[in-house]
Amino acid sequence: QALDAAGNQSSSSSVAHRMTQNTNTPLTPTGLSASTGPQGTVELGWAAVTENAEATPGDPQSPLLRELAGYRMYRAETHRFHPGEGNRIADEGNLPVLPEPVLVDNRIVNCRWYYYKVTAVDSCGAESEPTASAMARSFSAIRPLPPADVESFYHMLGWKRVAWSPVQE
Question: Which residues contact 57 (CB under 8 A, 6 or more apart)?
């Protein structure tokens, strides 16, 4: 609406709309650590991301990151992996913005090394570069059962054969 010096007001103009573009991505998270948790788990932590990778022109608070949606965690069995849909184990839906970001990975096999990378993602879906990989594995204090049905067979040629049932638990 327009307003003149006498206080007269015009009728409203037509509505205009435009979506802003996201020209920034969040900074790469830092301090990714992976450590052995209780049996069958790996505990992960990293520093919260609070800034964009670049300043936003015209924003006096830039490079402050105001639209962080959360984080994406990736896991592989080799340290040289590229984060992608196929190895993402958590995203901004279950890794929200927290003062001290953490994740407990409980979908692993004991005694196997796993490598992790994390990224930050904003509400527009812009994802940061991934961190370097961090590695950890989980241990088990549970001993396997001994083999069952052990049998020894002697052969006329002087050799022996030993057989047993496989351990299932």
Answer: none
